[in-house]
Amino acid sequence: MSTFFSSIASALAGWLARRPLATQSRIGGALGRLMLLSGGMRNRLRTYLTQAGYAERVTLTQAAASIGRMAVETAGLWRTPDAVVLSRIKIVDGWDAILAAHEARRGVVFLSPHMATFEVASLYIGSQMPLTVMFRPPRVAWAEPMMRAGRDRMQIKSEPAEMSGIRAMLKALRRGDAIGLLPDQVPDPAKGGEGVWAPFFGRPAYTMTLAQKLAKTTGALVVMTGCVRLRDAAGYRLVFTPLAPFSDDAVAAATELNAAVEAAIALAPEQFLWSYNRYKAHAGTGEPA
User: Fold this and answer.
1) Phi/psi at 45 (nearest 5 deg)?
2) How far is the C-alpha of 168 from the C-alpha of 47, rounded, in Å?
3) Cα(33)–Cα(23) distance, rounded to whole angstroms?
4) Which residue range(s) make up the domain with 262?
């Protein structure tokens, strides 16, 4: 049964990959807007947009449509040829600083929030330099083969979200290569995730400490990556912003990290994944200070 569903998913992703980006955008937008039929989803989006101060700027329809586009465009991305993916990246800002670090054999920690079709950024990076990313298996096992095939391309290598993956990232940075992390995911202590409570849009959120520790240990350059979907499905803009070294104090460093994520979201707040419960707390995280 798992093989059957995997084949169906792969075929659907292949069909999407053969469609123009504008068609993918229309399909995704329509599917996303259907989520607003759920009162729970409407309340969640409204709550998080209000918390972040974007309720007057971003409509529920815009937020939901972007979530659908992220899902559909990402699925298509996994089966789209590398050259086609790269041709859709129309604007790249801030790349010179990353090139300078890489040429100096200095490791780079790329942080990519759930913005637009954010996996486009990792494929661009992987076309330029070796990139190690953390991989968390999907909830449904049949989706993993397609996801792995779509992500392990060019110079990208995914590692499991466990200690072996962390060791692989540490080795990559010490070689002067790059790694990629999602800074807006809630760490799960049961799976080895470490974090502290720090404000995110003014509310305590359990925040990763891994990126900060890796940067301190290796002297790597930390770069916030913003992916923005251009108007009329014209392609994507990537914005790479080098960050100042983190503070030594864990809470202060996590606060700085969250502030950088907020700045990336400000590039196109309607394209952030507002459906994600950033304020949830796994067992073992304790209480906010």
Assistant:
1) -60, -45
2) 38
3) 16
4) 2-271
